[in-house]
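To illustrate this point, what follows is a protein record of this kind.

___
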Amino acid sequence: MWDLWKKAFYAWEDSTAKYLEHWMKSPLLLAPSGMMLGGAMKAKAAYDKAASNWVGHLGLATKRDQERTLHILHQLESRMIDLEERLAELKNDDDIERS
């Protein structure tokens, strides 16, 4: 019983997959879908810009401001790590000279 059901399912899946693959490549589906996606992306960009302006007018940090600050913090952290390593090397060299 199980093998019969499994074979039927695989036959249905194979024929359905071929049909859907053909339909998903069709210009009748792709053109309107592309236009809808393009419109949605334009709407999202307009919303993001309006939200950023609104937040900025409130005097709060926008996403872009936060990203810039985070980038600067990462640079400072990297410099501090480099300085700590140099300081440790100088300390080791100084300890060796005193020995």
In short: The helical segments are 2-24, 27-57, 63-98. The chain has a mean pLDDT of 92. Residues 63-98 form the longest helix (36 residues). The chain has two domains: 1-60, 61-99.
